[in-house]
Amino acid sequence: MGVQLVVSLLAACIMQRMAPHYSFARWLLCNGSLYRFRHPSEVELCALAGKQIPKPSKRDRRTNGESKPLTVPRDIDLHLDKSPVNALDALVLRFFVEYQWLVDFAVYAAGVYLFTECYGSVVDSSKEVNLGAIWCVLTVFFSLRSLHTLMSHYFRSDEGGERSVCLAFGFLLLLVAMLVLVVREDYLEFGLDSGFASVFDNLEVLARQQGYADWSIPVTKLTVKLGLAAICAFIGALLAFPGLRLAQTHLDAVEMNSGRPLIQLCLHLGFLSPVIIILLWIKPIARDFLANAPMGKTSVTLVSSEVFDSVRLWIIVALCVLRLALTRYHLQAYLNLAQKWVEQMKKEAGRIATIDIQRKVTRVSCYLTVVTLQYLIPILIILFSTLAFKALGEFSWGLNQDQTPGVTPALILPTVAPVLPGGLDDDEDGVEDMDEDVQATVARLSEAFSALRSVLTPLFFRGFFAFLTWWVAACQVISSLFGIYFHQYLMQN
Question: Where are the bilayer-spanning segments (predicted)?
Answer without folding.
Answer: 132-152, 164-183, 222-241, 262-282, 366-389, 459-486
